[in-house]
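tool=predict chain=A
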Amino acid sequence: MTEQIQSAPPANLDLPSPRLSEIVLKTSHFETVRDWYQLVLSARPSFEYERSPASCDGSGSKVENFRRLCFLRVFAEFPYTQVLAIFEVPNLTGTVDNSGLHHMQFRERSLASLVTRYERLLQFCISPYQSFNHGPSTSFYYEDPDGNLVELSGPNYEIEEDYLNFFKTPAFQKNPSGVEIDAVDFVRRYRSNEDVQTLIRLPD
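tool=predict ok
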């Protein structure tokens, strides 16, 4: 099958790519996970639904096998929406070694917004466990109550042209991952009005 895909003609390249619309998580800790994402993403449920007990006995299809669901809308510009959906599936057990979701990225509009959200989340004892300067962007990585990896990211450049040009630099070609940073130190330096270009500069 893989060989067939690789050798197939680019039949769909004339079609515009669809935009990412939903990320769907399944959890056995519905309220905890829902409330965590409402706080972290500043998002209110746009829709919640609970199925009747008779219809959630675990015998449904993979799509329908849930007890409750919640949609958190993070962006809308018709006909496009971006939604984080949370499905309650009772009695889940899991391991980080399973195939599936690696992480989710949510992009802030600026470094200022990223820093402000970081500071607000600290008030609720939510802090990143790892942080990176990727070069074109800076990211704080959090774990949700189920251990899913959530990346909150802010652009290092205010102008799109500067942002895109970084991907063409030898520095990015050599190291597309960037470098790990200390979030506390990064925020302190940002709030002390250190020059942003100095703050985001990667080591040679």
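The longest helix spans residues 30-41. The mean pLDDT is 85.
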